[in-house]
Amino acid sequence: MMDKAKRNRGSRTRLFDNVTSLAVLAAAIAAMPAWAQTTQPQDQAATQADLPDSTRTADPAAPDRLVRPGSTTDGAAEGQETGASASDIVVTGTRITATGFTAPTPTTVIGEDQILKNAQPNIFNTVAQLPSLQGSTGAATGTFSTSSGQQGLSSFSLRGLGTIRTLTLLDGQRVVGANVTGVPDISQFPQLLIKRVDIVTGGASASYGSDAVGGVINFVTDTRFTGIKGNLQSGVTTYGDGGQVLAQLAVGKAFADDKLHVILSGEYAHDEGVGPGNFGEDLAGSRDWYRATTLVDTGIRNNGNPQFLYRDHGQAYQYTKYGLISSGPLQGIAFNADGVPFAFNYGSNGVPAKNAAGNVIGCYVGFCVGGDQSGHVGSGTSLQSALQRVNGYTRIGYDIAPDMEFYVTANVAQVKTSNQPNPGASRTGLVIQCANPYLPTTISQACAQNGITQFTYGLSNAILPNIKVNTDRRQYRFVAGLKGKADLAGTSWTYDAYYEHGINITDINVDNIILNRRYDQAINATRINGQIVCADATARAGGCQPINIFGAFTPSAGALTYIAPDKGPFQHTKQTQDAAAGSISGTPIDLWAGPLAVAAGLEYRREFYRVNADPYGAGVSSISPNSTDYPADPVLLPAGNNWYAGNYKNGRGQYHVLESFLELNLPLIDSKAAGRANLNLAGRATRYSTSGLVYSWKVGGTYDTPLDGIRLRAVTSRDVRAPNLSELFAAPTTTTVPNFTDPFRNTQVLIIQNSIGNPNLRPEIARSTEAGIVLARPSWLPGLSVSFDYYKIKVDDVVSSLSAAQIVNLCFQGNTETCGAFNLQNTAGPNFVNVQAFNVASIKTDGFDIEASYQMRNPLGLGGNFTVRALATHVIKFVTDLGLPGTIPIDSAGANSGAIPDWKWLAIESYDTDRFSLTLQQRWFSDGVIGNQYVVCAPGTCPVSTANNPTIDYNRMKGAFYFDIGGSINVTRQVSMFFKVDNLFDHDPEPSPQTNTGLDVNPALYDTLGRFYRIGIRGRF
């Protein structure tokens, strides 16, 4: 194992090899044309001269008062940033753009300053650190999967409600989905031009439409950027892997007396990813935290002992790295790399029962503990997908009149990812003939002595090339819009209308994956005329060449081509989104406490997708008569599902949505003695082509009390989320699941899991309530802002699917309605479980957010500015009720095997001067449990273990604390160099034990990469 000093030297060498590249960029910046260097941004107020350019923002609630981006703005952003058009839509949980009152829905703002200081290769990583975001997906999640199609997809989840219940916008506009679930990929946004991210943590469907159940995240770009700015950075882990390079450049110029504005930006990012490791417990690099931690099932439910035991070094006893006879008289004989038989060390002092079921005395259901660990596949999973993204963006705006702009934007982006879900292709329950000529003579003789002609066998298939999943997402998004001001009946109205056409094309290709039935033919060898060949004549005619699976014998090129052809599984998906929207906002009436503000609008959206897959996965009926890539083969199943994994299907579907909304902001009180109060009302009618008409609404208000700086706010809303294309029209997808527990026979089997859509789904209906108190820059400490907000959300008619295990276990417990969805002893084909979405579940969650910030100028007379900001979220409960007989609600709050810890916080301290800046950041989440459903008990004291409340001997998962440090130095007024170190203390992740042989880690919460170094240079002119 590499010692720590050596690995640190390696990572520093790789990192600082890029200094030359940074110097090249610095030289290029210095050589920029004079017009670029002399043009200064025009979107900053002169009164902000005491703050660095990157940190100036107007407080929307009080435009004459200045705050730093990233400081608490109390959800006030109903006005616009200094210099922005009055018709800009700023997400604050309201469409009202009139100033004077703050919105009732809490809003967190991440400004450009915080984005730059975090120095991430993808802005997604910065936003996802917020405590209110739980369960977001990125390059480190989904790497265990072959068939999901979501590898490397960067999407947000607010309140732990899932990415599909968070509405993500770009400049207040819809973005075409990068997956059939409808969620966009943040990697495809023009990130260098983003000046602010607004996060609305609460239901906002009435104002912004479907999907805003958990909230809204809006990326606000600088639509009036002028000048040139660039960024180049590089990074690497302390283990010498995960290399990253990011290059960004944006140019903006005004023409025709400042009427024509043209902006161009381009980005290139390359992330090598991390992993995979190898068989056994050997992770990538010198990481040593993987221990194959497993929840082993004792099979005991009613003798006073726990059913599940938390154990390190769990080992499946159905297979090994190079092969194991798994049942019958020869059970326990394994093969080493040279093909020599030996007595397998099961661990747990396990003794093979040598029966037909393949039981092991002294072990557990499917697992022993300790012994020969060479066959593990979990450590061979990528810790982070490799990712490459290219992004091009342009915006052209022309001021038709002083208060009217016509604009067009074009965003073309490509994101490629690659990951290894596991090494080899483990197979269990294989039937091997004793006459197989590759078998050692001693095994053939043992067969004869025991009166058998065949035996069952399992192996990790280390002799096969490792599976690789490659995704390619390409986005083409075009927007044309008109926005501005107009006077009508003596009242000034702002308006915004746009049309968006988006196309996303996703190609998924899987390499080095076997066709199960061809593999079965290739391992069934015989000897004819002195030559070893495939036993089946039909298979031989189709090109079958035999393989030796009794040791580390690499198959011939012809054999590999037969079992794992060059053209593996593929899926080609085209999604289109057409969206047209128009809205107006104004103050038509002056009332006793101020003007009545009104916003109204109409929106139309059409979503469509079409997916085509390869015939070996989708079904041979789609094979072209002249196909050479996928020729017809009588060995294969005509209905498809022939691959080990990645059995994609053909499908298509579409729906359209028509919406109208009205929002009112009614001032109630405005006096020095009584304070200021307003009432915010919104309603929306939405007609879905698939499910009809549904309504959403919102009632809220704020009260600026007479007490210095004290503000109260509250809102309650009815929110909706319509089923997405995947849930409605999903092409059936098939996944191979090894070691699936069959409770009827207390054994493990290989199954095919089929996931299918349901066009009869209804919209989900949510009820959200929030109430909070804000201390907003009191006169006695004007640099301080603090807020506390309680939230409660209930979602009914939740579209969800039972897992394959839940479906089978429910039937085992007597719930007959799920029994028709599976067959675990299928004689007509593979064992299978069908998984389908339905509207029977519900989610209830509540908790509270705390946010505080304090800014001190010229601290201790040292000059500069010192800023502290902290955000925390406490989830009191997160209860999911499947809504089926025999099941009970499960509270996943505090279950650190998921994505919702009890407590999660983020703290940032920064000190800025004209010459340098230093930033410290702390990320923390609390200790938790593996699952709240478990009943912890000691041997001899346990109650009866049930599927709803199984007993266990240990149920704890430690939280984590991560410390980050970064800084920059201003080389010139326009150029700065910076560094960032994430996870400074190289904190290892906590095991997240499973009941199978996967990688026992949870990347949704824990850092799986370790300490990460970044350096870079940026400039703006």
Features of the shown structure:
about 1000 residues, mainly beta, 13 helices, about 45% strand, globular, disordered N terminus, cell outer membrane, membrane, receptor, Beta-barrel_TonB_sf
Characterise this structure.
With 1021 residues, the protein is mainly beta. Strand 33 and strand 34 form a beta hairpin. It has 13 helices and 48 strands. The N terminus is likely disordered. It has a domain of 65 residues. The strands form eleven sheets. The chain has a 22-stranded antiparallel barrel. The chain is globular.
How big a fraction of the residues is strand?
35-45%
Number of strands: 48
What is the average of the pLDDT values? Answer: 87
- If helices are DSSP runs of H or I spanning 4 or more residues, what is the number of helices? 13
- Tell me the major beta sheet: 22 strands, antiparallel, barrel
Family: Belongs to the TonB-dependent receptor family.
Membrane topology: Multi-pass membrane protein
Keywords: Cell outer membrane, Membrane, Receptor, Signal, TonB box, Transmembrane, Transmembrane beta strand, Transport
Organism: Sphingomonas metalli
Write the layout of secondary structure elements.
Layout: H1 4-16, H2 19-30, H3 34-38, E1 57-59, E2 62-67, E3 107-111, H4 112-118, H5 123-127, E4 166-170, E5 194-200, H6 205-208, E6 215-221, E7 227-237, E8 244-255, E9 260-271, E10 294-297, E11 308-311, E12 314-316, E13 324-325, E14 333-335, E15 341-343, E16 351-352, E17 360-361, E18 367-369, E19 386-401, E20 404-419, E21 427-433, H7 441-449, E22 454-459, E23 468-488, E24 491-511, H8 516-523, E25 525-528, E26 531-534, H9 537-541, H10 557-563, E27 570-591, E28 594-613, H11 615-618, E29 651-671, E30 675-688, E31 692-704, E32 710-721, H12 725-729, E33 733-742, E34 747-756, E35 764-776, E36 784-800, H13 804-812, E37 822-823, E38 832-836, E39 838-857, E40 865-881, E41 890-891, E42 903-912, E43 916-925, E44 935-936, E45 951-952, E46 960-970, E47 975-982, E48 1012-1020
Parallel strand pairs: 4-6, 34-38, 44-45
Antiparallel strand pairs: 1-2, 3-5, 5-6, 7-8, 7-48, 8-9, 9-19, 10-11, 12-18, 13-22, 14-15, 16-17, 19-20, 20-23, 21-22, 23-24, 24-27, 25-26, 27-28, 28-29, 29-30, 30-31, 31-32, 32-35, 33-34, 35-36, 36-39, 37-38, 39-40, 40-41, 40-42, 42-43, 43-46, 46-47, 47-48
